[in-house]
Amino acid sequence: MEREKMSLLTPSTALRRRYLHDRLFLLAGRLAAIASFSTIGLIFLAILYTSLPAFTQSCIKLPIHFEETAFSDENLALADYDMLVAQALARIIPGVTDPGEKEDLMGMMSPGAAWRLQQMVGSNPKRIGTVEQLWLPASADIDMLRKGKLDRTTPEQRRRLSKRQLKWYDQLNAEGRIKRHFNRVFFTAPNSTEAELAGIYGAVKGSLLTMFITLVLSFPLGAGTAIYLQEFAPRNRLTTTITVTINNLAAVPPILYGLLGLAVFINFFHLPRATPLVAGMVLSLMTFPSIIMASRNALAAVPRSVCDAALALGASRMQSITHHILPAAMPGILTGTLLGLAQAFGECAPLLMLGMVAFVGNIPAGITDPATVLPMQIYLWADNSGQGFPEKTAAAIVIMMLFLVIVNTMVLWLRRKFENSHPHTS
Amino acid sequence: MDNNTPGTSSFPTISSAGDDPGLEMLQHNDRQTCGTPFLDDPLISCREIEVFYGEQCALHKMSLDIGHREVLAIIGPSGCGKSTFLRCLNRMNDSIEECTVQGEITLDGVNIYDKNVDVVPLRTRVGMVFQKPNPFPKSIYDNIAYGPRIHGLAASRSELDEIVTSSLQNAGLWDEVKDRLTSTAMALSSGQQQRLCIARTLAVEPEVILMDEPCSGLDPIATTKVETLINNLSECYSIILVTHAIEQASRVSQRTAFFHQGFLVEVGPTARIFTTPESRLTENYITARLT
User: Is the ipTM, as predicted for this complex, more than 0.95?
Assistant: First the structure.
């Protein structure tokens, strides 16, 4: 029987069915991509939107009189700065005499206002005797009201601001004495129990110090182990056992590493708890199996022909590895390391065990100072029901994502850079 | 596959002669190598070498001499042990874990498989060019300079420049690359890359150059250039050339060795091998390939 010729212009039924399958598959792929992308996009937008108020801080403009009488003591830190704030408030809202009313009035300002004044006088004592119009931070409740997060219609008993305070707020607002400023405190201060004074910097620095320790410990250890196991170690039962064990270590729940760190580093070696040193050591234990695996894969992917060429020229085994295999495997090793670090950066569970969940009100100066890390700060703030903390939580998440984006961009950049100079790996 | 194991007298069977129709009716029924494997004043002499990959015998007991400044071509069907033999001569088989070599290969009277022998000087004296061009992903200059650098052959930058220049000139590549020594070697054509690999081998001044099918991936024009190069190099070096193309063997070599299924079947002056081969295996291989 002669086979019918396929028409070039009108596709046959079978061909049409094939095309239909192709289109369905394509559609499914696109839907999956859209679904995942929009989910991530939504989450990110929601967090970003929630975080926006945290990046600004409402301030009230007060006429501060740095009167010489207030600074009678030699030690400028002992002066009553709260009184300066109270006097300034009394100047713009006169006629408040009742102690309860006075307390309400003072409650409109953040405790940070007096602290700010102390800093200003400390850095420039010549201010004493002058009068200045200063923007000082308002309390978290006023801040929330300014940002539209406080409902005026709630009954007074359950409302966080009294009728008087609302009245004063409207008065000051009408005078143009309340304004939102960029929240510099958030980026420069450590954690605080007052939302308007709490900053992310302590946690960022703690995270960076921890990552530094993790990198310094896990990269040389991980890459070195990978090079030895992949290039030098004999293939025998012992090395196979080691390989299998390392692969299994990558799947151990992170909290177990925390328990290990608690038992070994803190209880046995008596290293200071809640410090970047211990956190970095525990996290490097956690990342180094994944660095080993990524590095071994990268090393195994380097074509042996280049190694052979070096050996045939009389290079030693070590030279052929350091001169040729390692540079070619470097993008893979670095990518594995950075991804491992990114994972450690977002890790919270093992650090709970090391006491990093504690409130740390100072910026860590070194690796042996008590510190907290970004994910832990997010956890702590998310747990805090105080005014302004949900926004801080979202803002901390944004900062953390920013760091992860930077790390991932670095991965891409490094890959491209090395791939250009070592086309063998591509 | 080759089912010959040491100690048994089973020889290549008809069925395992495989894809070579001209060999189907023949068996190699004599362990003795035909022709003239021995020379008066050899540079390398192989005695009774045997190579195993694990349990499997890849090269049966064979002996062969390689002379000074000669081109020895090694021909034979795929899987006959040509490359295995070649890799024994500079101990490149060392990096294959399950590979064991027995017997004796001497270079200037020293057994290269002696446990006191250092492979670094051995490979410096016995260079190798591979089937697939494998330049380093570096500049042309650095490719050539790599060997001299690791061996400390050049005392100064100008000496190194001289080595690079002369190596490229000897490999016939100088005129093509002299203006772009600092650009990457990966941008060269495969024929140029292969000549670069030869130049790189020359830069460490070996005595012997092993070439493992250096032209198999090259077009006819590039092949001609490499063959001319081999001809020129034979004035100064001993070259052992493994090749699939027996015409190439006839064009460039003084002696030819024919391997078949792990046996060295015949070796002798190229002209004689191609006109009056002693073994019928050799004759059939050559005629099947030539006609």
Answer: no
